[in-house]
Every structure is written in C-alpha cells, then in structure tokens.
Amino acid sequence: MKKFISMICFMLTVIVAEAQTIHWLTFIDTKDERVGQIDVLGRKVLYSHFVNEVNAALAPKGYISDIQDYYDNKVTPENCKAAIQLLRINNPDDIIVFYYIGHGGRPITDTGYMMEHPYPQMCLAQHDERKFIPLEWVYEELSSKGARLSITIGMCCNNLSNISIKEGPTFSPNYGTTYMSGTKLARIQDLFLNVKGNVLSTSASPTQTSGCFKSDFGIIDRYTTVLCDIFNSALDDYSKTLTWDDLLESISSIIDKNTNGEQTPIHETHLAVVTAPRTKTPVVPTQQQVQQAKQQQTPNTTKQQGNGDEWI
To answer: What is the rounded average pLDDT of the residues 92-101?
Structure first.
C-alpha cells in the first residue's frame, strides 16, 4: 500500500513539474486619491478582456495559470521586488506577463541617457523616489528566468521628475464575453505560443504623461483601453498571424493619433519564431469551458492618470 501511495505521489509530482504555466504578475494601484476608482474599473477590464481571454485560449494547449494579483494596499515596491525575485520557472515552455498600472516618471538627464534608457521608473503607490523601481530592471530580471516568453508592460507616466537614476531597486527587500471564436483563439495562441524571447513596452515616450480615454468600458487608462478593445472587438476578424510588433504598433498608433502626438507608447521585442509546445488535445474550447476559465480568475483594480479624453 505504501509503495502504491508513493508511486501516486511521484506521478503527481512529475505532472505538476511538467505543467506548462502562464505566470501573471499584475500591480495595479487602486488607492490613489485622484484616480483609484478609475483603476478599479481598469483592473476589471484588464482581467476580463485580456488576462482571462489569454488563459482560456492557452488552456487547450495544456497551460495552467498562476496569477499573482497585487492591488489596494498590496501594491508596494517591496512586494514588487519580492514577487519578481521569488518567481521560479520549472518548465522551459512557461510564459511570464508583468503588467503595471500606476504612477511613474523618469530622471532629468541628457538626451543620450534618455535615448539609451527610454523606459520609466514605477512609483508603486508611494512617494519615496528612493524606492521607485525601473521598468527596465523588471524586464531584465524576468528575461533571465528561463521562460519561453516574458512580457513586461508598464502603464505609467514617463515625464521628467526630480528622481535619481537607478539600475534596479535601491532598497532592501465578470466583465467579459462568454464566447471565443476559433479565429480569436488562434490569434492569441499566435502571440503567446509561436515565439520565444522577451517583450518590453510602456504607455508613453520619454517626457510624456499617460492619460485616460472614455471608452465603452468606462474611463480607464488609454493603454489598457486600446489593448482590451483590440482583444474584445478586433481579433475575431483578424485572419493573419498576429505578432507582438503588430499588436504593440497598433496600440501606439491608435493612442498617438487620438492624442495628437501627446502620448505615444514605445516598445521593443527580442523574439524568435518557434514551434508551438506540443499538446495532447489541441481543440477549440467550448463556450462553457471559456466561461469557466474566466470565472476562475479574480479581477483587480486599475489606476489612471491624465485627463478624461474622449475615446475616438
């Protein structure tokens, strides 16, 4: 009997070790006095129209989701640093997605430094600039974890502020549809399973602030609005292979056009096309399976900055 139990435990351990996982690290500041309630809605939209949709699309390919959802009082520099450093990748086909919504800024420097380091530092719901964390540090740390794909997105201002240059942390430690078409499923799988490498994106160019749109979802930040709008309404009819450059350039173009150049998201991709991970049952999920996958997620809140510009 003991041998049988030991064998079962061993088999379960092997299954868990081999499970392909998409790891979500979301830090969304919902406590800000000015925009916290806007970010509450933004968090719900992000989870309903992006996180849950991706999880549902990858589930038929054998992926499970690991969601670390930080909001309210859990958004701190200490928690962000710890979550990133403690993240462990046990399967080379794992995927990591980091998504931050909150305040940010960049040091006042010469243009040379600005061109070499165009990405902002994240405030993480506090005002001690010594604890701000550079988005580039997050990107480099996650890129070194050994995952198949790591995505780092910062939705925050990138304007000039009286903060110091940092290479890393300087302190010690159901809003959604119930149906997913085969075309949309394929496009999401294109993004997450057809490539290996790393992606870094932020919602504004150096010296710019990040603002809000009044969208069909409500008033939330421009970057999350456009990202979720694309997932919500455009992928069903997108018959071509979807790449990260396609997606991020579309987001940048839409925001730049509708703000008259006042806000232009930037990104960089370091990717190689590869064969998708093998799966035992590559099938399109039923409506019931999609809905069940979404209901398993816990949507968070989102934080917004800027003015309530009309969504066009």
So the answer is: 98
For residue 64, which of 126, 18, 119 has the smallest C-alpha distance?
18
10 Å CB burial of residue 129 (0-12, 13-18, 19+) is middle
What's the CA gap between 10 and 29, in Å, rounded?
41
CB 32 within 8 A of CB 303: yes
Q: Three-state secondary structure along the chain?
A: CHHHHHHHHHHHHHHHHHCEEEEEEEEECCCCCCCHHHHHHHHHHHHHHHHHHHHHHHHHHCEEEEEEEEEHHHCCHHHHHHHHHHCCCCCCCCEEEEEEECCEEEECCCHHHHHHCCCCEECCCCCCHHHCEEHHHHHHHHHCCCCCEEEEEEECCCCEECCCCCCCCCCCCCCCCCCCCHHHHHHHHHHHHCEEEEEEEECCCCCCCCCEEEECCEEEEHHHHHHHHHHHHCHHHCCCCCCHHHHHHHHHHHHHHHCCCCCCCEEEEEEEECCCCCCCCCCCCCHHHHHHHHHCCCCCCCCCCCCEEECC
Q: What are 278-310's pLDDT values in tens digits?
A: 654 444 555 555 555 555 544 433 323 333 333
Q: What is the pLDDT of residues 115-139, one digit of tens each?
A: 999 999 999 999 999 999 999 999 9
CB 49 within 8 A of CB 175: yes
Contact status, residue 201 vs residue 97, Cβ threshold 8 Å: no
State residue 205's pLDDT score: 97
